[in-house]
Specification:
- The protein is an alpha/beta fold.
- Helix content is 44%, strand content 13%.
- It has eight helices and seven strands, in the order βαβαβαβαβαβαβαα.
- The protein has helices spanning 16-27, 39-48, 62-75, 101-127, 150-169, 202-215, 228-231, 239-247, and strands at residues 7-11, 31-36, 53-56, 81-84, 132-137, 175-180, 221-222.
- A seven-stranded parallel beta sheet has the order 3-2-1-4-5-6-7, sandwiched between helices.
- α5 (150-169) links the parallel β5 (132-137) and β6.
- It binds NADP nicotinamide-adenine-dinucleotide phosphate (NAP).
- Residues 11-12, 14-18, 36-38, 41, 57-60, 85-89, 110, 114, 137, 139, 182, 184-185, 187-189, 193, 199 line the site of NADP nicotinamide-adenine-dinucleotide phosphate.
């Protein structure tokens, strides 16, 4: 993908990794549009980055996503980069009674159905561009699950699988598909993420991720150094040891 002069839509662009990517693409000379549920948060980011645009969107709502797709195509007909970044993570106790089915449903709705619906709504627009890219944000936990957040890990593993199929089905189009696989990063995703010294600093993560695409614009996966042990655990025969390390003392 080219790194400038694109029209880039980032879901969940009002905070954390989405905001970091939005600002990085903005600085490189792209038209950036950020979407999310909290308009006030989106407005703060837009105010700090004049010219950045915002759209309020709840990716959990199928009708809203369809409507969004139609309006977006009229307002931003040049869309050529979609970053499916919005996501949630909740801790679950699978032994709880009654079982917390609401959390399971919410997690799959936002992390899996959400990006699938947004992609479906915008794909007709993306594939008619001379060159376009879909970046799906999964997680190192798609490859080695952290048992405290089981539905989160399962939703990201499913998103990894969907991304492989999407790339294969789009192989004869002008749309490339990239998977961005973050490690543990300091954001507001979970209650302890933001100030946990074991998590990667957000700006370091965004810088390294952007550098990977800048160095190899044809890459299919963006895996920063700190995530390689998770992403390649199965391939390097270290899955069991990594699973144990990750889940030591966890639920
Ligand atoms: N931080 C990590 O350690 C880590 C590791 C691996 C992967 N990731 C992935 O990175 C992505 C970004 O997460 P983050 O860490 O940056 O956390 P974050 O700051 O909480 O960002 C999540 C964003 O998603 C948006 N969002 C959530 N539900 C939404 C919905 N229904 N509709 C539209 N937007 C929605 C939120 O905005 P609103 O609340 O305003 O809607 C928020 O801006 C997620 O997919 C996450 O799974 C994070």
């Amino acid at each position: 993908m080219n790194m400038s002069e694109n029209t880039v839509l980032i879901t969940g662009g009002g905070s954390g990794i989405g905001r970091g990517l939005a600002e990085a693409f903005y600085r490189l000379g792209n038209q950036v549009i950020i979407a999310g549920r909290r308009q006030v948060v989106l407005d703060q980011v837009a105010a700090a980055n004049p010219g950045m645009r915002t759209i309020q969107l709840d990716i959990d709502n199928p009708d809203a996503v369809k409507e969004f797709g139609k309006k977006f195509a009229v307002e931003f007909p040049g869309l050529n980069v979609l970053i499916n970044n919005a996501g949630i993570q909740r801790v679950e106790n699978l032994l709880a009674q009654p079982p917390d089915l609401e959390t399971i449903q919410a997690t799959f709705t936002t992390n899996l159905l959400g990006p699938i619906r947004v992609t479906a709504a915008l794909l007709p627009l993306l594939i008619r561009q001379e060159q376009s890219t879909i970046i799906n944000v999964t997680s190192g936990l798609a490859f080695v699950p952290g048992s405290a957040v089981p539905s989160y890990c399962a939703s990201k593993a499913a998103m990894h699988s969907y991304t492989l199929s999407l790339r294969q089905q789009l192989r004869n189009t002008t749309t490339a598909v990239i998977e961005l696989i973050p490690p543990y990063v300091q954001t507001d995703l979970g209650p302890s993420h933001g100030n946990d010294p074991r998590a990667m600093k957000l700006s370091d993560f965004v810088d390294e991720a952007m550098m990977i695409i800048l160095k190899d614009p044809t890459t299919t996966e963006i895996v920063v150094e700190r995530c390689r042990h998770l992403r390649f655990a199965a391939e390097t025969g270290t899955f069991d040891a990594t699973f144990k390390w990750l889940n030591n003392g966890m639920a």
